[in-house]
UniProtKB/TrEMBL annotation, chains A, B:
This is Transcriptional regulator. One of its GO terms (molecular function) is DNA binding. The keyword DNA-binding applies. Residues 69-248 form the IclR-ED domain. It comes from Saccharothrix espanaensis (strain ATCC 51144 / DSM 44229 / JCM 9112 / NBRC 15066 / NRRL 15764).
Length: 265, 265
């Protein structure tokens, strides 16, 4: 199976799928081959197989994009099939009260993985997307996950470079540790223009049956508005309801539910 | 690349992913091999590659499931990335007015493909799921898509066996044709316990720049309630807004956006 360069055809085909991301949702064959450091002929043959199966599609501009069939199959994974389905009705209740962006997230490796998002026309436009990843130290849902993680995980996280998303992002490890302690003291996380200028957020942890943080629930508003704390009682109430259903459905995120180990750095 | 039996390793690996469906979201290695008519040793080797990349994961019961990474990549396909993002805020407005299940669907082959769904605690529980397929003749969004399809497509659809979902499903081709004509006359589709006992629905077509049906928008309510027509003005208003944004974003579903040809029968 392994070829001259030690990679199998299957892992090379998967690499082609992994070449797409939110900044590169469509790619030409040449771009695909270049991004995967693969000879054009190899890329051509593997892309044809992926296209025949429906994993890739070609659009009207003859560029490749991820196929509808892969979306359908991806929705069978536990995060959308279980966690997302459980959280959405409670998020809907929060949305109706607040008319703001509502997020439900889990930790995957060192990232905040957005499991579900509700938004409307009155909510402030934000960059989060379902299935997208953002840092943990710059987002409300991320800080809620990080503040309640194990001390060992917090130490590892703070020892890594902290990406600066805006001039308000906390990028000093000592300051981040104090911020996480303050988050635990008050019971909820806050951000103020730390991910995106003009937006601030509030988020609470969702605990599993063993009182470990399993997910987080948050809300993003326009930064000129005040008193994010007023949303906390509703967030906590819905987080408790989500936690209850997750326990009933045995949606314990560790192990195997989301990745406890970082993937790809 | 092609092996003794004429199938490449890549297409066999893809077959393993295709073995999962909503009724089989987790499978053992033995079940996977059986569903793909593949020797256990071959399945074992390919599953290991899929797992290493993150396309498959093993859960606490040692059963395989679709991996989070495949969900993330599937979300890059145009249906969720573009259509779903466009439709959701308008669906949110409809949900707030009705508190009922809201659906946005496209035609893919001979199926209704559910692109987006909004639901809450007050809405009646229904079987639709995002990324799921249901027949066109038994669902409101499906009938709205079918009624406005080309005569050629309607002929082909009516010539195929019409699956009976409940005792109320229209399974006689002649009756279905009359129902589709009535749908066009009144400008919206209705179902009454044709997909699920206890539910009825109303849906309207969403037209593209060439006045072809591109999608449909519908609402599912509990069957005891009356006067589904009361929802039509709001549905039509939101459908028109979605159509406008789709045209602005060049979200023309044919060709290459969804499949005009049936896939896998």
């Amino acid at each position: 199976m392994a070829q001259g360069n030690g990679r199998s055809a299957t892992s090379r085909a998967l690499d082609l799928l992994g070449a797409f991301d939110i900044r590169h949702p469509t790619l030409t064959l040449t771009e695909l081959a270049a991004r995967c450091a693969m000879p054009l002929a190899t890329a051509h043959r593997l892309v044809a197989e992926l296209e025949a199966w429906g994993a890739l599609e070609r659009n009207a501009d003859n560029r490749y994009q991820i196929g509808t069939r892969l979306w359908e199959i991806g929705l069978l994974s536990p995060v959308p099939r279980r966690l997302r389905e459980i959280a959405l009705p409670f998020m809907q209740d929060l949305y109706e009260k607040s008319k703001e962006n509502i997020h439900f997230a889990v930790r995957d490796g060192h990232d905040t993985l957005y499991v579900a998002k509700l938004t409307g026309h009155r909510a402030v436009p934000i960059i989060s997307r379902e299935g997208n990843r953002l840092p943990m130290h710059s987002t409300g849902v991320g800080k809620a996950l990080l503040a309640y993680a194990s001390q060992e995980f917090i130490d590892t996280y703070c020892a890594r470079p902290l990406v600066r998303c805006t001039r308000h992002t906390i990028v000093e490890p000592g300051r981040l540790r104090r911020e996480l302690a303050a988050t635990r003291d008050r019971g909820y996380a806050l951000t103020s223009e730390e991910m995106t200028l003009g937006s601030c957020s509030v988020a609470v942890p969702v605990f599993d049956a063993r009182d470990q943080v399993a997910a987080s629930l948050g809300l993003v508003v326009h930064s000129v508005r005040e008193n994010l704390a007023k949303y906390v009682p509703d967030l906590k109430a819905e987080a408790a309801k989500i936690a209850k259903v997750m326990v009933e459905h045995r949606c314990d995120p560790y192990p195997g539910f989301v990745h406890d180990l970082p993937r790809g750095g």
